[in-house]
Amino acid sequence: MIQNIFTDQLNYHFVSSTIKKLFDKLFINNSSEKGAIIIIHPTYIFVCPLTKPYNYYENIPLFAEPEFFAGIFCLPLLETVWPQTTQSKYIENNNCIDILKTSTKD
User: Fold this and answer.
1) Could you tell me the pTM of the whole model?
2) 49 vs 55: CA distance, rounded Å
3) Which residues on neighbouring strands pair with residue 49, listed in sequence order?
4) Residue 62, beta-bridge partner list
5) Which of 18, 30, 35, 53 has a C-alpha 20 to 30 A away from that of 24?
6) What does the alpha-carbon distance between residue 69 and residue 9 come to, in Å, rounded to a whole number?
């Protein structure tokens, strides 16, 4: 969700209250078990809920990074861990669109 703003509105109180309003619209709260990506720009505030990890690595959840939403993808190079036995030494998770879909889908 994107909220357009004007540069003269860019202060702590305005940004904080705008983010809280966007969280309410997206049903992001302490009990919802959702996180959020927040990008603050002089002309807009972008908020996207993160609902679940796109993958796990040694029981550590992996979530989409903020730059993914700008089309900049830096994916971790994850080595396979026993008992995963594959031909590759690394876990392949290079479908960037699927990562965004998985991380933001309810």
Assistant:
1) 0.65
2) 17
3) 36
4) 55
5) 53
6) 24
Q: Dump the DSSP string for 46-96.
A: EEEEE-S-SEEETTEEE---GGGGGT-------B--TT---SSSB-----H
pLDDT in tens, 13-33: 888 888 888 888 888 877 667
Six-digit token string for 79: 């080595």
State which amino acid sits at residue 26.
L
CA dihedral sign, ordered 104, 65, 37, 72: negative
Residue pair 68/54 in contact (Cβ under 8 Å)? The answer is: no
pLDDT digits (tens, 9 = 90+) for 76-95: 777 766 666 556 555 566 67
